[in-house]
Write a structure and sequence with these properties.
317 residues, mainly alpha, two-stranded antiparallel ribbon, globular
Length: 317
């Protein structure tokens, strides 16, 4: 009986994920334009959140640079979108963010704690203000136009990037690099003494996570059609993935996905219905989550599962 339960538990998660993927793939066939745009935004936030958790979750390094890498992807699309097809400049946006993260990580990942968090947030402001200076001083412009792409195409491109990200996250977690990341988060000095190339593992994972943020930025830029440094490097996109990860919980692979989905939908609903009280309501939700749900939504689900299991055991006895 126990073996059957283990086998069932082993297969129901992949089966559920496959069912969700099939439903998402068929969504544009029956959903309204508003819902397609809404789900595209939710997928974007899932990519940003899951990418952030890929590096910051196991290592404990709080990065506030998602807006920088997302913005690099946006500007890559603005520069190349009129010359290259969508898949090419999306990949280029991911590679550009990968290269930026590789350089920044090599220079800064020796910093720890609040120093690393402050530097990564400063990176957002640095790139934004450099672009503002460049455009005003050298090109005489304020922003750039981006090639217009159909909403269905944007949706499927975002879904493809998300699937690739989840596969990458799963493979890293089950590899020796995943173990190395966990050991860095638990005790970095001990990990270095056991032979882990701490700097290489941190820098490479940081760059991989940034590449998915850049790809998402390149796709999303095609929906806005016009971008400028203030839109592309909005600091809010550095904080939202962190808040969504906390809201969902980082212990399981589906935690950031669940947190980003629920939080992004709440954001859209509250912003539409309560535009003047939006930030107050979001702050209240976050305070309640941190105080009463330290494990996020995943922790709440696990508590419910344990309670049901105990009731079943008591009923059998």
């Amino acid at each position: 009986m126990k073996t059957a339960r283990v086998g069932l538990r082993k297969w129901w998660v992949p089966g559920l994920l496959l069912l969700i993927l099939v439903l998402l793939a068929g969504l544009p066939r029956f959903a309204s334009l508003y819902n397609i745009v809404l789900v595209s935004s939710i997928l974007m936030y899932i990519i940003l959140t899951q990418s952030w958790v890929l590096f910051s979750g196991p290592t404990g390094y709080i990065s506030l640079a998602p807006a920088a890498f997302f913005g690099v992807g946006i500007y890559t699309a603005a520069l190349l979108g009129l010359k290259l097809p969508l898949p090419v400049f999306v990949v280029a946006g991911g590679l550009a963010s990968f290269c930026v993260a590789l350089v920044v990580g090599a220079l800064t990942l020796r910093l720890r704690g609040i120093y690393f968090a402050i530097f990564t947030f400063g990176l957002v402001q640095l790139i934004k203000n450099l672009l503002v200076w460049y455009e005003f001083s050298l090109t005489g412009t304020r922003g750039r136009f981006v090639v217009l792409v159909a909403n269905n195409t944007i949706y499927y491109a975002m879904l493809a990037v998300l699937v690739l990200l989840l596969i990458t996250t799963y493979l890293i977690r089950r590899s020796r690099y995943g173990l190395a990341l966990q050991s860095i988060g638990e005790n970095e000095e001990a990990a270095a003494h056991t032979g882990v190339n701490v700097t290489m593992v941190k820098v490479l994972t940081f760059a991989i996570s940034a590449s998915f943020m850049g790809a998402a930025g390149a796709i999303m830029a095609t929906r806005w059609t016009y971008v400028d440094p203030y839109m592309a490097f909005n600091p809010l996109r550095s904080f939202m993935p962190v808040l969504m990860a906390i809201f969902g919980g980082m212990g399981q692979l589906y935690g950031p996905v669940l947190g980003a989905t629920v939080f992004a939908y709440l954001e859209e609903t509250l912003l539409t219905k309560f535009p003047y009280h939006y930030m107050l309501l979001v702050g209240t939700i976050l305070v309640i989550t941190i105080v009463y749900l330290p494990g996020g939504l995943v922790g709440l689900l696990q508590k419910g599962r344990r309670a049901i299991s105990r009731r079943g055991q008591n009923a059998n006895t």
